[in-house]
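Milestone 3.1: sequence recovery, worked example.
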């Protein structure tokens, strides 16, 4: 078996493993659903996640120690993670192969030539790492974890979780119990497709020009023990080794070690054994570090240091916080949350009710694609018996909590349940408040006990096209002087007839000109002909008890008012 065949087998294996981990990140009782699979393992192998969270929090989540394995492999073997393991890199390599497979040698060499713009990824890396540094001092003591925007592993997870798998649900594959949708998915899809299809223009475009993880591993590979290089003799300068070079590292001449992704195509292509993989330096010389300008490095570093303070000048994590931005239960306080969240979409995928969505710019630039709760979506609100999202978060931006803590039971009874917000009734849109229409949907569906939503009963007069007067009475039926009512409209049990003397009786049926009452009338109760009668509607107007409300959003999801709900949850009173 050739070394290239071994590399392809490795790439296929890790791509399949990656998609399998995405698929099984689904709650359910089917054999292929979440059953203790290490679904975050590939994310944890990403050393950029570990380094950036270490800089931003000065702590390291235990699972991220797996990143040391990738670092060790790079220090020994070079960028084997990029060429052999990274599933996103394998996708790029496959599409790049499709784009160039029928082109002539000259065209392939032109596409694969090194470009100075490949230094951009190093400036991106510097910006991300300096933005993540938690510096001392009041105004600089904020750190922002932005690596997840372009880090290939979080980007791939986010794209597959929120784009490809929901599309497969709509295609009938049934990977989720119900088809899912996500707010702002078009932008995530646009970034994902652009990253992939640019490979048709330049192979491994994303890996060469954008990938901050590739930049980090490129810097580490400068110390690699084993590396690609030329022998002292045998090279005829045919340049076949550069035809399928995935990193544009120029193995024919002075090889660029930091750009070599260990695809080993050059070993396979060379017909004179002039390219080897060994511990000795290349006979033609080596570029050990990328060509970075001092000015570009300084600009990137200063921009990163200033990024978090500048983005927070609007007070989005302080007094000007957005109450409409509701975080999942167990989310850390906002600044600590933004210092940990890598925007991978794992919490959104595992959410059984599909209420966790990627935030847009309402969370600010640094909050883009972080998780928020959208209660109009999905199948219900945030179930108060669910703790899935925190147990799948790879960086503990949403910390793992237990059911007792979520519900405020046993040892946590003194603190009470975790609150993710508070519901507020919009009386201008609520049916009982604004339109005299009976509705207690929010109160009926409130899942906490005692209920956070209670009602107060009122009777309001129903407007009619003309005053109602009695024509005649036949036991429990009133005949009206004019046919002014809509047949059956006021026979739901919520409407009452107000008779002279203040007698109020429920209406059980009605036609355009008659009212059937809940019992027969007798004696002085019987209204004489010509007596006025009014129709009252019994309303149960909802109120929210903020001491009981946990902000689960079930009431908002079930509210029958379409569009802007008549009861809405905000992040007020959240406990984080």
């Amino acid at each position: 078996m050739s070394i290239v065949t071994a590399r392809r087998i490795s790439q296929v294996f890790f791509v399949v493993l990656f998609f399998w981990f995405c698929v099984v990140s689904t709650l359910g009782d089917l054999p292929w659903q979440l059953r203790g699979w290490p679904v975050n393992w590939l994310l944890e192998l990403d050393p950029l996640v570990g380094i950036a969270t270490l800089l931003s929090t000065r702590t390291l989540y235990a699972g991220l120690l797996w990143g040391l394995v990738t670092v060790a492999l790079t220090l020994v073997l070079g960028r084997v993670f990029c060429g052999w393991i990274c599933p996103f890199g394998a996708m790029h390599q496959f599409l790049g192969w499709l784009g160039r497979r029928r082109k002539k040698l000259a065209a392939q060499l032109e596409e694969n030539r090194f470009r100075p713009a490949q230094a951009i990824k190093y400036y991106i890396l510097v910006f991300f790492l300096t933005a993540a540094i938690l510096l001392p001092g009041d105004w600089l003591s904020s750190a922002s974890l932005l690596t997840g925007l372009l880090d290939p592993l979080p980007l791939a997870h986010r794209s597959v979780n929120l784009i490809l798998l929901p599309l497969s649900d709509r295609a009938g594959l049934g990977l989720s119990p119900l088809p899912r949708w996500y707010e702002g998915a078009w932008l995530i899809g646009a970034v994902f497709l652009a990253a992939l299809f640019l490979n048709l223009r330049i192979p491994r475009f994303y890996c060469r020009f954008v990938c901050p993880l590739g930049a980090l591993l490129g810097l580490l590979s400068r110390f690699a023990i084993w590396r690609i290089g030329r022998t002292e003799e045998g090279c005829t300068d045919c340049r076949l080794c550069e035809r399928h070079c995935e990193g544009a590292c120029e193995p024919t001449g002075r090889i660029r070690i930091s750009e070599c992704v260990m695809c080993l195509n050059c070993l396979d292509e060379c017909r004179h054994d002039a390219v080897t993989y060994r511990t000795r330096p290349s006979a033609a010389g080596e570029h050990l570090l990328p060509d970075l300008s001092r000015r570009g490095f300084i600009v990137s570093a200063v921009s990163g240091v200033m990024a978090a303070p500048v983005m927070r000048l609007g007070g989005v994590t302080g007094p000007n916080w957005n109450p409409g931005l509701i975080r999942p239960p167990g989310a850390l306080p906002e600044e600590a949350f933004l210092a940990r969240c890598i925007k991978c979409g794992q919490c959104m995928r595992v959410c059984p009710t599909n209420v966790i969505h990627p935030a847009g710019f309402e969370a600010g630039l640094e909050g883009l694609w972080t998780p928020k709760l959208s209660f109009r979506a999905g199948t219900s609100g945030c179930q108060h018996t669910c703790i899935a999202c925190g147990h799948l978060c790879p960086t503990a931006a949403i910390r793992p909590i237990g059911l007792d803590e979520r519900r405020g039971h046993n040892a946590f009874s003194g603190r009470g349940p975790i609150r993710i917000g508070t519901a507020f009734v919009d009386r201008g849109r609520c049916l009982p408040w604004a339109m005299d229409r009976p509705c207690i949907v929010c109160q009926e569906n409130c899942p906490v006990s005692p209920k956070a939503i209670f009602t107060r009963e009122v009777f309001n007069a129903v407007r009619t096209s003309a005053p109602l007067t009695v024509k005649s009475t036949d036991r429990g039926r009133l005949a009206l002087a004019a046919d002014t009512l809509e047949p059956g409209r006021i026979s739901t049990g919520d409407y009452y007839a107000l008779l002279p003397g203040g007698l109020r009786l429920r209406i059980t049926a009605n036609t355009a000109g008659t009212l059937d009452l809940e019992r027969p009338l007798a004696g002085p109760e019987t209204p004489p002909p010509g007596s006025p009668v009014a129709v009252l509607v019994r309303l149960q107007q909802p109120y929210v008890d903020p001491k009981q409300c946990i902000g689960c959003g079930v009431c908002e999801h079930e509210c029958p008012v379409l569009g802007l709900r008549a009861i809405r949850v905000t992040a007020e009173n959240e406990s984080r």
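The first helix runs from residue 3 to 23. The chain has a mean pLDDT of 90.
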